[in-house]
Amino acid sequence: MPPKSPKALAAIIILLLLPFTAAGQIVTPPGVPKDEINSDSIRRAFDSGPYFGLYKDNYFIFGCPVGERVTRKNTNIKFQISIAQRLTRSTLPGGTYLFLFYSQKCFWNVLENSMPMTDLNFNPGIGLTKPLFVRDRFVGKLNLVVEHESNGRDGTASRSWNRITFGGSILIDPQFMVHGKAWIPIIDGMENKDILDYCGIYQIGTSYTSLNQRFGVAVTLVKRKGWKLNYNTIVELNYRIFPRDNQYLFLQYYNGYGEGLLAYKEFHSMVRVGLVIKPKLFSDY
């Protein structure tokens, strides 16, 4: 097993930061004048916003393993497409909106003969999103989502599970955000009954964006099942290419298990670089 001390330290740092979320401050959604920032105007901005948009980060990155010999087989492209469709025109009871979500993640071995796509993970979901307000100030949102994830394979290569997830993102200030998500698993795949031992039972994380909105860093920890400090760790750096665009140079470091469904039991320590397109307000994880 890999050493746990760096991940344990990261977990302690994030847990120390979580109590400060009560000090959440304003972040202005697009189209809301600063002198009209209140809960009603922000809800109007949500209601009048586009129905279709980005959900999680959309990226295209290429890289290799860390700490082992680099070969054509273990060097690959990883890309993710993630979108959201709002299904309700205005708020439902409780100030929520109904969304349809879809994410797809792919691992593409472009250096091997015939350039096979070795693993495709499909992740549709439907759920409620609730914007959060404190003293008429927007401070984040909550999500309750029913989602499915599988790799579309059959036989011994089949991987499939379902989750009821409850998550939230809190803006401590316009630059600093913390997030967390826990789930109730419903495991229907016969070949991945032990998936919680590798893909986890909850996650926590944080992200920071510079004052000029050009540079960002994010850390996400996914807690694997058990009482040990056994986390899958994701560290991401991004740099905005042009000041008014949402395209970024992107570096992602993944350390742990469960990066893809097919090889969820295999440990990976991978670094990849490429491009990412981010949602306007903040990314979901």
How would you sum up this structure, described in words?
The structure is a single chain. The protein has 285 residues and is mostly beta strands. It contains 3 helices and 13 strands. It has a 12-stranded antiparallel beta barrel with strand order 2-3-4-5-6-7-8-9-10-11-12-13. The protein starts with a helix and ends in an 8-residue tail after the last strand.
Features of the shown structure:
12-stranded antiparallel beta barrel; 48% strand; 285 residues; 3 helices; 9% helix; mainly beta
Question: Could you write a compact summary of the structure shown?
Answer:
9% of the residues lie in helices and 48% in strands. It is mainly β and 285 residues long. A hairpin with a 6-residue loop joins strand 11 (231-240) and strand 12.
